[in-house]
Amino acid sequence: MAQEFDTLKAYIASQTAEMVQLEKLLTSIPAMAPESGGDGESKKCAALEEWLRAHGITRLEHFDAPDCRVSSGVRPNLVATIPGNNDDYTIWVCAHLDVVPTGELSLWNTDPWTAVEKDGKIYGRGVEDNQQGLVSGVFAALAFVGQHILPEHTIKLLFMADEEFGSAYGMQYLVKHHLAMFGKEDRILIPDGGDAAGETIEVAEKNILWLEFHTTGKQAHGSRPDLGRNAMLAGCDLALRVNDMEQFFNKTDTLFDPPYSTFQPTRKKANVDTVNIIPGDDVFYADCRINPCYSLDEVRAELAKRVHAVEEKYGVQVEVRELQAEQSLATSPDAPVVRDLAAAIKGAHGKTARCIGIGGGTVGAYLRNCGYGCVVWSTMDELAHQPNEYAVISNIVTDAQTIAWMACDGK
User: Which of 89, 244, 284 is nearest to 182 (CA)?
Assistant: First the structure.
């Protein structure tokens, strides 16, 4: 299929103006979760569905998750199918529809919801996270449709809800209610992370544990600490003990950067309103990213010891609440999806890829924990959640060509 791939590659390269227009359409429809004050992804999904049908991608199926908090009553999960010559496995491109809020508007040079093209980049909220990967997948598929070339393998594009808030209505919902849509031999690509050269294939994620620590002591006058139990002081001590767990769980793994587990106190809630009050109530949070060689149960057991020591020392009570807990399996660096993607990167662009792990979380964890190999890959500058977020237009082209290579075996 070398000649056919050359045709696909040239077609994709000719579509930059259309790629920009699709980015502009998607950016103009804010798709934020209710947790961010948004109304979900339904309007954005409807606009995308209309665009796909108008461009010849018509095999569309919904796997929507009910959510009474949004006006449509659902969080959309849409699958587009482009049938291939072979059904031995499917090439999946899984991108999420939702975006995060803009943050401080004064930090933006342009309107975040009006995508602006400038100097080979397109600026706006969501243009990279995750519309870049979404658009690359769409145009890889559209190349086959537009050029009337049958893919060697069926292509499925998954447009997911709710990635930014844990995927309860997105990938988690799908693996719980519709897991049979995926095959164990499928090549599942999640274009939601990467590097500027497009040479790193993410195959593993650190375990994630987000914690809330609520310390209850006894309020007193600032001059009489002997009559109170300082919840803030106890909380500060506990925060240091949580951070010290980096020295306890100290095995390193060079797949990750940094190669060690991290236990970082982060957010702290306000307590008392004036300087001369000993606080009887204190709340702080920690973000823990743990190398996969340790189980979360090991971490919980050690944490419980440290919490108990603080309670005994200060005469306080500490309630620990888990906000997020994810233990993730890894995709083998020798898995077919890794092999095929690396071959596509090499074949389409002459680059040699390498496998990495990340500390962040992606929807790949939910699939891996169900026994499905998947990879996270894209060519991007990693502007997610930042003001003046941009996508490099040539990266959209390059990634679409790479996906097209996978779908026709590049030969």
Answer: 89
* Nearest C-alpha neighbor of 188 from the set 331, 397, 400: 331
43 Cβ contact list (under 8 Å, min separation 6): 29, 31, 72
CA torsion angle for 233, 238, 241, 246 (degrees, to 10)? Answer: -130
* Tokens describing residue 168: 């309860």
Written as six digits, the tokens of 144 are: 């086959």
Q: Give yes or no: 163 in active site.
A: yes
Q: What is the pTM of this model?
A: 0.88
The answer to whether 119 and 391 are in contact (CB under 8 A) is no
Contact criterion met (CB below 8 Å) for 318 and 311: yes
On average, the pLDDT of the chain sits at: 96
Distance CA 79, CA 154 (A): 12
The four Cα atoms 387, 393, 398, 403 give a dihedral, to 10 degrees, of 70
How many Å apart are CA 153 and CA 216, to the nearest integer? 59
pLDDT at 214: 98
Q: What is the DSSP code (8-state) at residue 64?
A: P
**Tokens found for residue 364:** 């790949």
Give me the half-sphere count of Cα atoms (radius 13 Å) on the Cβ side of residue 42: 16
- φ, ψ of residue 77 to 5 degrees: the values are -130, 110
User: Which phi and psi angles does 212 have, rounded to 5°?
Assistant: -115, 130
Separation between Cα atoms, residue 361 and residue 344, nearest integer Å: 25
**Set 163, 202, 237, 282: catalytic member:** 163
Run of H or E residues at 326: strand 317-326
Determine whether 98 is an active site residue: yes
Average pLDDT estimate for 257-270:
97
Looking at the DSSP bridge assignments, the partners of residue 265 are 286
Q: Is residue 60 left, alpha or beta, with left meaning phi > 0 and alpha meaning psi from -120 to 50?
A: beta
pLDDT in tens, 80-137: 999 999 889 999 999 999 999 999 999 999 999 999 999 999 999 999 999 999 999 9
Cα angle vertex 291, ends 286, 292, to 5°?
120
In the set 98, 205, 282, 389, the catalytic residue is 98
What's the average model confidence in pLDDT over 333-339? Answer: 96
Amino acid at 305: K
C-alpha closest to that of 195 among 393, 395, 382 = 382
Report the SS3 class of residue 352.
coil
The mean pLDDT of 285-294, rounded to a whole number, is 96
